[in-house]
Amino acid sequence: MIDFGSSFEIWDNHGKHKPFVEIKKFTGNLMFASANICRGATLSRRDDIESLIYVYVYLLNNHELPWSKWQEALAENTISLKQIRSRRSKPEMIDEVSKMLPSKTIKTYYMRVTELLYEDEPDYDAL
Prior knowledge:
This protein is 46% helix and 0% strand. By secondary structure, the chain is mainly α.
């Protein structure tokens, strides 16, 4: 269930967090990619947790996420990857996912994760 294909070291040789870089080309699994990745942001710790929550929602909701139907449209060429990435990164998608979460605790954590900045460390203890 874990894919380390996109993983990288977040610290430079001096122990500082590597700087934010905008990514032009999408890599990864669109179904579970974070909103930040869809916007073209560099992967960060926040994105790993957000993706994990999407896997959780997917498994709990009969393999459905708010954007599941777009995968078929992409295969049929009725929507582009750029359009999906744009739609996925909109704030209302966070609300849609939140509605699918089974407990207030997980919803609260999810909301906190989606508000993290690039260099912020997720509250792993809370998770």
